[in-house]
Structures are given as C-alpha cells and as structure tokens.
Amino acid sequence: MKYDHKKIEAKWQKFWLENKTFKSVASADKPKYYVLDMFPYPSGSGLHVGHVEGYTATDIMARYKRQKGFNVLHPMGWDSFGLPAEQYAVRTGTHPSVTTKQNIDTFRRQLKALGFSYDWDREFATSDPNYYKWTQWIFTKLYEKGLAYEAEMFVNYCPALGTVLANEEVENGRSKEGGHPVERRPLRQWVLKITAYAEQLIKDLDLVDWPDSLKKLQINWIGRSEGAQIDFDVKELDEKISVFTTRPDTLFGATFVVLSPEHPLVEKVTTPKQKAFVEQYKKTAGGKSDLDRTDLNKEKTGVFTGGYAINPINGKEIPIWIADYVLISYGTGAIMSVPCHDERDFDFAKAFDLPVIPLFDPDVETFADLIPQGMDKQECRTLVKAGKMCWTGEGTYINCAGTEISLNGMKDYAKAKKTVVDWLEKKGLGKGTVNYKLRDWLFSRQRYWGEPFPILHFADGSRRVLGLDELPLCPPEVTDYKPSGDGKSPLAKVTKWVEITDAKTGKRAMRETNTMPQWAGSCWYYLRFCDPRNDQAAWDKEIEKYWMPVDLYVGGVEHAVLHLMYSRFWHKVLYDCGYVSTLEPFQTLRNQGMILSRSYQRATGVYVDPEAVVEKNGKFFSRDTTNEELRSQIDKMSKSKLNGVTPDEVIEEFGADSLRMYEMFMGPLEKEKIWNTDAVNGCRRFLTRFYDLVVSQKLSDVDSPEALKLGHRLVDGVTKDIEALQFNTAIAKMMEFMNEFSKLPLYPKSVVKMATQCLQPFAPHLAEEVWEKLGCKESLSYAPYTKVDEKYLQEETAVYVVQVNGKVRGKFELPKDQSEAVIIDLAKKNPNIAKYLVGCTIDKVVFVPNKLLSLVVK
Prior knowledge:
Blueprint: H1 5-18, E1 32-37, H2 49-67, E2 71-73, H3 83-92, H4 96-113, H5 129-144, E3 148-158, E4 163-165, E5 170-171, E6 174-175, E7 183-192, H6 198-203, H7 212-222, E8 224-234, E9 240-245, E10 256-259, H8 266-269, H9 275-285, H10 290-293, E11 303-310, E12 317-322, E13 334-337, H11 343-352, E14 360-362, H12 377-385, E15 395-397, H13 413-427, E16 430-436, E17 441-442, E18 455-458, E19 463-465, H14 495-498, E20 499-501, E21 508-511, H15 518-522, H16 525-528, H17 541-547, E22 552-556, H18 562-576, E23 589-592, E24 595-597, H19 599-604, E25 613-616, E26 619-622, H20 628-639, H21 647-654, H22 656-665, E27 673-675, H23 680-694, E28 699-700, H24 705-723, H25 727-741, E29 747-748, H26 749-759, H27 764-773, E30 797-804, E31 807-815, H28 820-829, H29 831-834, E32 842-848, E33 852-857
Parallel strand pairs: 1-2, 1-22, 10-12, 22-23, 24-27, 28-29, 30-33
Antiparallel strand pairs: 3-4, 3-7, 5-6, 7-17, 8-9, 8-11, 8-16, 10-13, 11-12, 14-15, 18-19, 18-21, 20-21, 25-26, 30-31, 32-33
Helix pairs in contact: 1-27, 3-4, 21-22, 22-23, 24-25, 24-26, 26-27
C-alpha cells in the first residue's frame, strides 16, 4: 500500500467535519486553552503560503493541547469590512457583500483543505449584521463613558479614494492603496479618546508574555514623556501660546516659538504684511503627510507670522513662526525653540538666521561620544559656548539668570528642571505635566462598506445614541458606491435613509453618514468567538470568564501597534464597564516571520534580503525608506505577487500534511524565510517513510528496550519543543527518530503509537490514518498523550573528562558510576595523560561522579 495523500486527507477532513471533532463547549471539568489567529481579510486572491505559516503554528498548539487534556477553543472568522471590497465595487459595480461572500468561500475551502482543527460552528464575518450589531453596541458604551466625541480634525484626505486615511496609510504624500495624492483637510470626525488609557496601555504590558521588541513598539508609539506646559503671552493680543516641553530647564534659551500651520492662533498672530506668505505656506503644508513633515533629514521650511510672544522667564520678545515640522496633532501644536540644544531647532535657526543662546558649558568628558569626529574637546566647548554648535548633552548651566530665578553654575539636570517647574507653577505661568505622542483615535471613514454609527443628529445640535432594541443599524442597499467628492460618505447621497423621523422622539433626525473603520470589527472579535450565537448579549459573562484571556495569539508583526493597541483599548473600556473579567485580552503573543519567494530572484536576478523587508496589508516595503533602489525592487516584488504561491497547488502535488510540515521546518517561527516549493518534497519523503512503518512486515506487538528508549526520548523532546513553539526542532527530532528507529529489526507498535502522537499536531491526516491502521478505535485528536518514563531518558554511559593542572588531557566514555580509583588508574595507563604525570606527585584530586577527574600535580 502506497501513501496516497489525496485519499487520506479527503477521508479525515470529511470525518472531522461530520463528527464535529473540534467543537468546543465551556466546561469546568477541564482546563481551557484558547488559541487564536489574527483573522484574515478575505481578499480575492485567496490564501498564500505566508498565511499558512501562522495558522499551522496555532493548529499545532490546539491539537497538542487537546491531547494533553485541555478544552481547546480554536475558532476562525473573517475581517470582511473595509476599503478594498468597496474599491472593487466601484470598479465593477458588484455589491461588496457579493465579492466578500465569494472570497470567504474560497478562504474557507482552502483552510479546510489544510486540515486546521477549527470549530467551524463559531465562524462569523465582521460584515454580518448579527455581528456588527454588537460592534455598534460597544460604540454606544464608549459614547456613554465620554470616550467617543465629534471634533473638527485635520485629516489625510484622499480625493481619489474618497476617504480619510490614517498616517500609516500614507507615504510620500500618496495613499499606499493605489498611490493617489493625499491632502490635509479639516473634517468633522468621530474620535475615540484612547489617550485616556495611555498610562494603562503602557503599565499593563507587564502583565503579558509578548516579545520585548513588540512591547517597545507599543511603548514608543504611546510616547510618554514628562515635562511642563508653559504659557507664552502674545504681544499686543489677549492670547496665550501653550507649549509642552520635556526640557523646561532650557526656557532661558528659547529664542522663537513655532506654531503648526493648522494652529488656531495662526490667523490672529499673523500681521497683514505676512498674511499672503503664511496662507501660501499653509496650503503647501496641507499636501504633506505627518510622516513627511517630521522627516528629520528634510530641508527645514517655515514662515514668520510677524507676531511676537513673550518668554515668561526673562520677559524677552521672541518671534512667532509657523513650520510644517510642528504637528497640530502632537502636544499643543506649538513648540518653544531652543536652537543651541535641539538639532532640529538649530537647523531651523541657521536656515533663517535666528538667535542661538548657549545654556551649557558642555561636559565634554561625560558626553565625549557627542563630539564630532576629528574635533578636540576644547574646540567643542568653545563652539558650543559661542552658539555655533548644537549640544544635546549636559554640562554646567550658563546664561540662565533672570530677575527671580537663576540656574547658573548648576550641574544637576533634574534639580534644574524642578526649579523651573516650581517657579512656573508659583507664578501661574505653567505646570509640570505628562504628555503622550499617542493621539486620540480618528474613527470616521467616508465609506459605504463599514459599520454605520448608531447615532441620530437633531436640528438643535443634540444627538441620540440608538438603544440595543434598535440595532443592528444596517446600511441601505445602494448601486453607487462612489464618494460624493466633497468629503462625504456615499451614504450621504441616500436621502431616504439619512433623513428620518425618529420613532422614539417623533423629531426629525439625520443618521450619521460616516462609517466605522475596518479596525472596529477586529477590535473585539476574540470576545465574540467565546459565545458567537448569543442573540441576547455580545457574550455571556460566565462563558467569557471561562475562556478569557486568549492563551496564545499568533499573527504578523505588521499588526504590532495599531490592531493590538486598539483591541487593548476597547478591552480595558469593557473591563471598566464590568463586561469582561481580564485586564488584558491576549496573554501570550507571538509573531510569525514573513515568507519570501525565490521566484522574483530567479526571474530578475535581484535578491532582496528578508531582513530589509516589512509586510503591511499584503504589500511589501523596505525597512530602509531612504533606499530608493531597494524600495523599487520590493515594489516590483510586491506587484509580482511575492507571496503568490497558493496552498492549492502545493496540496495537490505534495499534500496538506507535507505543506504544514515544510512551513514549520523552514526555520524558527518568528524568523523570515525563503520559500522553495521543491523543498516540500523532503517533508513528503519523511511522511512516506512514516506511513511505510505501519504497513511494514516488521511491525511487532513485542516491545524492546532500544525502541522504548527512542520513543520516550522522542516524546520528551517534541513535547518540550512544542511548548516552546520551536516547531522546526521538533520536526528535526522526529526525523532523527525515524533514522534510528528504521534500523531496528522490529518496529514495536507501542513506540509507533508514541511517534504518531508526536506527529499528529504537524501532519494530522496521516497520523489519524496510521492510528486507525494500528487498531485504535477512537480518534487520535483526543487520545491521551503518552507519559514519558524518566528511566528511558537516563544515559547508560558517561563521559569522564580528565584534567591535569586545569587543562583537559583526555576523556573516557564508560558505563556510569565508575569510582574515582578506576578513573585514576585508567588515566595513569593512558599514554596521552600519563606523560603529564611522569616524575610528578599528585597533590590534590577533585572527582565529580560521571563527569570529571581533576588532578593537581607537582
């Protein structure tokens, strides 16, 4: 009998589906294990082999934990709202729900063909009304807590796509989706107050088992900084400019103030003479993304407003400028510029011939690494003190004396900072405060294919949030998905849907025409998976308490910040509302590495190192955004479907089990890998050899010590590797086992069963088939995992290292538990060791049983 992967895989996929083998039910009788994938957006291209990597890893854990006696929750669903489906609808006239359903059907078929042990009874899509009903309900909870509000915001607006884009969706002033021009435009938007949870989002990272690099990404994104808010009076106006600075101690050196072009005071402080220049600059800045504006390497640009502010610490008049490197979305939208001790301010001051006041006699000894190469220490001090060089280190304060406060002669930065903050607070000119780089979450999209907001607007400016009995609020059926071109959603054109009489108040009302972003549905799907068929609540509290938190969450590193940040934020709000029982949603999180194809290299001769590439939303970008050649190469790779190898063709030729094993054998889960379809055949050969064991004439009911030793060592090693998510080394151990086991004269069934249980999480179809052929009646999926007998892990021999005066002079591999006298005798008889003992007296002996004999001789 030959290994027929098509027949075997079809047989067991049908069995699992018909018997609902992987159906999970909350039960206090077993410990739970909740393992989850970052669920996919069902694109028209279907799955590629990059998807399969993470899904295989979670399936290995799910299958392994079932064997270990856990009640496993392993669900799958679809992140199905979003811009790509809507853009396809615009191009083709096909309703997004139609293409979404077709794409989901393709994804589901492919996932089932891979034998993943999902509980398909829990499947849902974020675009299902009975799902987004609860997304809308969660929004009402945010609104009731004052965490959802409307505000006029400067946003990245793409006229071609007809929608607002997040900063991360814009590159070089163009949309990453389609490469269309993006402009800055003020729009009234719904915003979620994620900043209210900034501190908790940092602190609670200590509660989870995540990679340190990922935690750092989140911490840096939140960007907590301690400093002071300082108020500058505006000359001849009853206005104040508030700035945030982390260095209030440098206030004496503030020689100008810079406002964001969008700052509300720009118009007031601009003089008639400067008005035309300011307006032109504002228009130019409006066409740039935040990332472009804050690029440290770009040429500094700005315009003088004609106005002046008063430095509160010394009463000096300082000019007010606008510059695009200051963002309205960060801090107060205004900065005090201290050019001698901030490189960006120094460059700006040089460009526009603005004053530079040095505040430090630099400590060139402690901060010697800041001295430019080729410059001596004394020259550095002279240039800094003359205001001709920027110094970002510390030193002794100079030029820091006013009528009421002086820092001159101080060297303690923390003390100087506190001195200034205390003085500002005493005078009512500022206060110590904490600032965050994190901005409130812009939550509106001008799209059709998204969750409608459960909000009614009345003529008097009041609003009413819809009650649960009024949800879901579904979008109307439309044939025109194109944006209106004036910044409004396609829904705005459906007058009959927008303009209504409110059934509860009897008043005329207008529905919200913006929709929620794609992030909304993916923020909380892990909670709905706990109780997906509940019509009365988003989830039952006792069921949520049983399953949560997610024990293992696996997905791409491209979601390291936004998706995870947004999910954590919503979860914490739900926790504070009493709806969930855990502070954090995902206890352990791991990222799978990206898989790159060699096909592009073969076709063009160009090879791009995986370390230089980052994937985002299925597209590939250079980590080094300044390398234009690298960026163009990766762009070509992306367009040629870098991950274009589909699992269908690999399954057809080699089988799902071979594909699963190859994906895990390529290397550590978290590392990038190069795909090679031909190499899948190596895993196929291993599985064929394993199948041959069962149909071999050498299969025996009689155990042997040699076989039992191999079997128990295999189980021990594979168990430890799976627990550590080191799947590649687990497979290597199975291959080593096969090489040794196949040399035995007979193949004991008991040991073949052990090996089959080790193989099952990786190659479940073949393992189930082998299990059945071994005479086992129950499904392998829940067969108790073999318990390791420690006696088979003990080595029968030991290597005794012999040292003479601390240097290794020989080794003996002998039966264990040899005496000190025996090893000394062997050492004296061994010519390689004995020559170091001739004419010497043994002064000291150190003997470590089964390990070491150390002789000190004179």
